[in-house]
From TrEMBL:
This is Inhibin beta C chain. It is found in: Secreted. Residues 106-226 form the TGF-beta family profile domain. Pfam families: TGF_beta. Belongs to the TGF-beta family.
Amino acid sequence: MEVRQARLMFFVQLPSNTTQTMNMRVLVLRPYATNLTLTSQYPLQVDASGWHQLLLGPEAQFACRQGHLTLELVTESQMAHSSVILDGFSHRPFVAARVRAGGKHRVRRRGINCQGGSKMCCRQEFFVDFREIGWHDWIIQPEGYAMNFCTGQCPLHVAGMPGISASFHTAVLNLLKVNAAAGSTGGGSCCVPTVRRPLSLLYYDRDSNIVKTDIPDMVVEACGCS
């Protein structure tokens, strides 16, 4: 995975007509090291409450790709740090990154992602560009996301395999169907999402306030037979 661009998003709350000086420190974990190393600092001034963003440099982007990035945002005043930089559920700082997957290093596991002419239950990768559906005027970040969806057939002899069924209960039920041991077990199996994860959105609400929230079950991670 190549990190093309990364930026820190953070929410600041200031009294009226004040300016706050801050200092962001980028710390990384070097290979075979146990302590974090300070690689760079970014001084900045904030003069209004709300969401702010800071574009991160190459060192931070590299550390973000390696998964060993630590950012410290410190206020340089007598004001309490916790009252200036908010970190509650809806104001939690986060890093928004634009990445590109390296094609030659990608590994697709059989039975998870759809391949070629596969007709069995699998996860089909699908990217949604918010600009294409007209949502770019109110969604700030991300510019789109991989929603993915489930497709394919679930024959009973396959749907009865624990690794493909949506649950162990489903596996047992489908085996009963195969063996005709239950005459009223219902219809056939369907290919459905078995694992989902949330998507973090930064957007404008109806009052033009910038809001950050995590929407559950937005990204399909895995599929199985119900």
